[in-house]
Design goal:
single chain, mainly alpha, 434 Repressor (Amino-terminal Domain)
Length: 81
């Protein structure tokens, strides 16, 4: 599996996202990070949290609070435009 910083170029080369459809919020976060080539820390900065927090979300070790989920969903919509 390529590193996140390499995935953006892999996706551009292939012309599509090669992993299964992202259905859950953790999968959507990971997909967004892969598509944009963002590290955990870089994505966390967008939400004013650290990379370790993003890791816990992606790996379903912790579920973000409802207001944080709303921020994540909004951010994913805005950045996907």
């Amino acid at each position: 599996m390529p590193e996140v910083i390499q995935m953006k170029n892999v996706i551009a080369f292939l012309g599509f996202y090669p992993l299964p459809e992202a259905k859950t919020l953790p999968e959507q976060i990971r997909k967004y990070r892969n598509v944009d080539g963002l590290t955990l820390e870089e994505f966390g900065k967008l939400l004013l949290v650290d990379g370790a927090t993003v890791w816990t979300w992606e790996n379903e070790k912790y579920t973000p609070a409802e207001n944080t989920v709303r921020k994540i969903v909004y951010l994913l919509k805005e950045l996907s435009r």
